[in-house]
Specification:
By secondary structure, this protein is of the alpha/beta class. The protein has ten helices and 13 strands. The protein has one domain: UDP-N-acetylmuramoyl-L-alanine:D-glutamate ligase, CATH 3.40.1190.20. Strands 5-4-1-8-9-10-11-12-13 form a nine-stranded mixed sheet, with helices on both faces. Strands 3-2-6-7 form a four-stranded mixed sheet. The two termini are 16 Å apart.
Amino acid sequence: MASLICGSIAFDTIMSFEGRFKEQILPDQLHILNVAFLVPHMRREFGGCAGNIGYNLKLLGGEPLVMASVGVDASSYFDQMAKFQISTEFVQEIADAFTAQAMITTDRDNNQITAFHPGAMDSSHLNDALQAIQQKKSSTNPIRLGIVAPDGRQGMIMHAKQFTEAAIPFIFDPGQGLPMFDGKELEVFIEQASYIAVNDYEGEMLAIRTGLSLKTIAQRVQALIVTKGSQGADVYVNGEVLQIPAVPVANPVDPTGCGDALRSGLLFGIENGLDWPTTGRLGSLMGAIKIASQGPQNHTPSLPEIQTAFKLAFGYSFQ
């Protein structure tokens, strides 16, 4: 089966600040904040949540169908997707826009400050998930699962509604798009979704905005996944909380895209009927593999290498 991955495609301009943000930003001077960071190292990477999730799911042997909007400058991104045999069938080019751009500065402690230009992403509502599901219904790879990842506001609302209308289970992954929605809108997403994936900060914000505890939110979906960086993740499922360990990384290089890599493991696990301890651990491993490489889409482990790494980390096989 195929997973329809609704979200952003973006170019990431990643800069490395050799100091620490906390040493440069004075808490009592935030009202007149005016800082500049010397970033001697800079590179441009392929990114965006949908692009990153699709890339990692392909590494796992999945069949990702990326649904996103790009601008007139996206030819190199199309080449990247073709190189890894990722379908661009549902990637729409917007003639009068640039592809979304993220400008990310990372400090010595792996903290990040990001500026984001949405560009073509704001046209994501022009992509019809329901039409894509119908189009693939009679194919050898019908869409049976989806994810609504950070994207244009109206696009996220529409795609969640379309998955619901088509009775396709999906992961709601609000990410950095969460502040765009008020409590009532977030409650609608919760009611529509089968699964929710957030980091611990986003989980706290989701709880505050909806007035619902994480346990209450978990009762309304099949599973709630809360990632905690180097502390692993918690999976709220069947009335209990499973603690998923992080996979140790000897030399962490770049956290950009780790959450997306983790979500590819969740999609793969759900697609293949894996239990939640295994699904969570696979997500944890994919995040660890990613953090050892620069950029969101430069790690290239083969599926046998991923399988071996999983067995070494957890003592059993996921396939």
